[in-house]
Design goal:
- The protein is built from ten helices and six strands, in the order H-E-H-H-E-E-H-H-E-H-H-E-H-E-H-H.
- It is of the alpha+beta class and about 450 residues long.
- Helix 3 packs antiparallel against helix 4.
- The N terminus and C terminus are likely disordered.
Length: about 450
């Protein structure tokens, strides 16, 4: 704020002072504060970040808990119906001697039901498919978390790289400011040039502060994706790099059809619904019942019988019909999921192609052109062939080109993450359908 006030006062009195007095009205060099920095943090590779999220992210924890719940349900459905113990006796005032007697062993009976109607097998089948569905849903959650972590990690890489660019832009602007100040002091350039470079340097300080804040925000977003505490920030250990791939769309579609967990989850859900139809229909068939009481058990006598519904007033028939319609609906849902998978892959593939084209346009066009233009104009400015406005504009153009270039690389990396999510496989598994192409010249633009 102090430097801006100084500059404003200089600009306000500059024209009047130069015309009437011909002397310097005020100090042109603004007081630039010490440059802030980002506090150090533990660095993680992308794979380390993904593994940390698989362990600590709330979504992955919840999905693992649901899998264990489904496994416990399967264990319970495999077990036979629990035996029952009953106490019953007559308490009839007409009877000469009421039988509601706690000492009468015949009032204590035990019953055990054997599910001869197939109910236990259907329940087990239903629970088994529900467990498989939960496992596929967990895979879906893991893929979502992986994509979220990758996007957050790449965003932090972009922020770190753009912070480096801002520091370089600040250094270039400061160098030009110092050069112009010396030229002004030697009478080689007007005072307006010195003031303009001072303003440009002050603006670069603001840009630098904004980018430092962007790095802090990106760190916080990565922390959220990892499931870590906000007061324990991490940094991206890997630099932002560009390694284009050329995957085959048909191969990706084929891999997605067989690997996307959403489709498998829908199929297991359909199988669980089919098992429910059988479970409802099993109520028409009898179950074997074995029982005894304390009096009979002493003699080794067992009571054997069966239970089955006497009439169906529509409850069983309605449950069976409902189950069949649920299966039909889920079959249609599977078709929708398969169509969505193909659309996801096609969309991600097109996004990747567009992102690759954008990076190439910057890499082989705008960035080297902006770098060459800035060098030529700076040389011309030193020799007096270009104005300070030409140089400041060239520096601004170069800064914008570099920021946009690395932003485009980040978009490409995130498009790869989107494609990975669409196929349902980690990126390493796509090697059979891709080829790594080295960056031209082995280096990226400065």
């Amino acid at each position: 704020m102090r430097s801006l006030i100084t500059l404003n006062r200089c600009l306000a009195g500059l024209g009047f002072a130069l015309v009437l007095t011909g002397v310097t009205p005020c100090q042109t060099t603004a007081a630039i504060p010490d440059l802030p920095s980002v506090s150090p943090a533990n660095g993680l590779t992308l794979e380390q970040a993904v593994q940390a999220a698989m362990r600590d992210n709330a979504q992955t924890k919840a999905s693992r808990a649901l899998v264990e719940a489904a496994r416990a349900n399967l264990s319970g459905q495999r077990a036979p119906i629990n035996p029952t113990f009953t106490y019953a006796g007559l308490n009839n005032s007409v009877a000469p001697q009421p039988t509601l007697d706690f000492n009468d062993p015949s009032n204590y009976s035990f019953l055990f039901t054997v599910e001869t109607n197939g109910g236990m097998q259907w329940r087990t089948s239903q629970a088994s498919n529900q467990l498989r569905q939960a496992q596929e849903d967990a895979r879906t959650a893991f893929l979502n978390v992986r994509q979220g972590v990758t996007n957050a990690y790449v965003a932090l890489q972009i922020a770190n790289r753009q912070l480096q660019d801002e520091r370089e832009a600040y250094a270039d602007t400061k160098r030009v400011r110092d050069l112009t100040q010396k030229q002004f002091e030697n009478g080689a350039v007007p005072q307006t040039n010195a003031i303009r470079t001072d303003i440009a340097l002050t603006q670069e300080v603001g840009n630098l502060l904004n980018q430092i804040n962007a790095v802090k925000v990106a760190r916080a977003n990565l922390n959220i994706a990892l499931g870590r505490k906000p007061e324990e920030p991490v940094d991206a250990l890997e630099p932002l790099e560009y390694a284009p791939v050329q995957p085959n769309l048909q191969d990706l579609q084929s891999q997605a059809s067989s690997n996307r967990p959403e489709v498998k989850s829908a199929e297991f859900n359909r199988d669980a619904l089919k098992a429910n139809v059988g479970l409802q229909r099993s109520q028409y068939y009898p179950n074997l019942v074995v029982g005894t009481d304390l009096r009979l058990i002493k003699t080794g006598v067992l009571l054997v019988g069966f239970t089955m519904p006497l009439f169906d007033f529509g409850s069983i028939r309605g449950a069976v019909r409902q189950g069949k319609k649920n299966v039909e609906a889920q079959t249609a849902e599977i078709t929708l999921q398969q169509q969505q998978v193909r659309q996801d892959v096609a969309t991600a593939f097109e996004s990747l192609i567009v992102a690759e084209g954008t990076v190439d346009a910057f890499q082989h066009g705008m960035v080297p052109q902006a770098e060459g233009l800035e060098r030529k104009i700076e040389q011309g400015y030193v020799l007096g062939g270009n104005t300070i406005l030409d140089l400041l504009d060239a520096q601004s153009t170069l800064r914008a080109a570099r920021i946009a270039y690395y932003g485009a690389i980040g978009n490409y990396r995130q498009a790869l993450a989107q494609l990975e999510r669409a196929v349902g496989l980690p990126l390493a598994a796509l090697k059979t359908a891709s080829a790594v192409v080295p960056v031209e010249g082995g280096k990226s633009p400065k």
